[in-house]
Amino acid sequence: MATYSPPPGTADIFEAEAREWRGIERIGADVFGRYGYGELRTPIFEYTEVFQRGLGGETEVVQKEMYTFEDRGGRSLTLRPEGTAGVMRALSGTDVMNGVEQRVRYFGPMFRGERPAAGRRRQFHQIGVENVGRCAPLIDAECIAMLAAFLREIGLGDFVLDINTRGALDDRGPAEELLRNYFSQHIGQMCDDCKTRLERNIWRILDCKQESCCKIIADAPDYIASFSEASRTYFDEVRRALDALKVPYRVNPRLVRGLDYYVHTVFEVTHPALGPQTAVAGGGRYELFLPGEKRPVPGVGFAAGVERLLLVRDALNIKFEEPAGPAAYLVGLGLGARLANLALADQLRAAGIPVELELEERSFKAQLRSANKSGAALAIVRGDSELEKNIAIIKNMSDGEQTEISADAIIDYLQQRS
Ligand code: HAM
User: Fold this and answer.
1) 308 lines ligand 1 (CB under 6 A)
2) Rounded to the nearest whole angstrom, what is the distance from the C-alpha of residue 313 to the centroid of ligand 1?
3) Does residue 303's CB lie within 6 angstroms of at least one atom of ligand 1?
4) Are 332 and 380 in contact (CB under 8 A)?
5) What are the pLDDT digits (tens) for 95-135?
6) Tell me: the pLDDT tens digits for 256-270?
7) How far is CA 267 from the centre of its chain?
């Protein structure tokens, strides 16, 4: 742990942890690749309007959490708080507008000015996908099933999946009226945030976690019944497809999600190891307006929080396999031997054999200690007399047994063992 800490809500990731990150990314690329998703890398910052328009001006992320700054040219830029809006901006140059499907996956840092806590960071990382250009219940179900497959392959098979429907955009008005009529009668007993939400974004009341609000929310009217027949059929088909795919889920009418772009299917995943309040992944179907377009583009996707996936893996005590130590540790006594070892290490590494060596003048004992610590199976020892005879001593680190070998045979010897 560095004594000079990074800013709150950010973290340094050292090798042992980075190995876990690479494992998650590798499995994601593999699973999503099987479903036809190719990688898209978008910039870490975008014009602020990409997120303002994309996520909706009334969302908490846009109102309170964005890292926005002006560049030297006076342009307003924002560090991306999520991946979807940037992906859609990037796809605006493709033919998604003409109903051509694009399947993309991404992995990278996102930034939100939230209060840091366990599993809540200001710089966090998402692994996600977007399926853009078409709209059908079975596409949503396939996307959810792919998330389930990914979670299983990284060891989170005991996930809890909540799904819900937000209906079509046209369904919002009647549903909001129903909810407004109900909540305005009870708003006196509800929290201050909900009082503001009643005016600004009534849907967010539904996922308020305050105890006083929960009781009132539990008796809220069934707004889904007010959705059009087509929207309810859409949701039925998503569920039938999930049943056919044997993906376990719960229908949760309180799940609305925090971003404004969602329509129809929304979903969120939690895991018993982190509890019901901490989502490890979330997503849904959305409609987003691309710059200059009058019609929205449909898509469905999700993102999982990498830090949170790793917290679950930690709690379950699962780790990706640690790599074995180097094939050999080169011990050199005297400058001549160290120079010879440096050149030999270069040749071995070029031949694909990982080795470590001592480059400073240190005692034999100290070098053997380092060899031990490195986890190398062998130590290859040379001093002036070995150089003179053009030999090396190979010491087996597990039983201490020593053999002599011609210096010219070292590469072959190690290659045969690997
Ligand atoms: P989101 O629910 O805001 O959705 O974030 C997705 C996931 O990112 C969360 O479930 C959580 O695991 C992780 N996450 C969010 N904020 C933090 C944080 N401060 N610290 C650590 N992890 C965090 C989206 O971002 C949507 N773009 C997902 C999506 C893609 N919907 C459709 N396509």
Assistant:
1) yes
2) 18
3) yes
4) no
5) 888 889 999 999 999 999 999 999 999 999 999 999 999 99
6) 998 889 999 999 999
7) 16
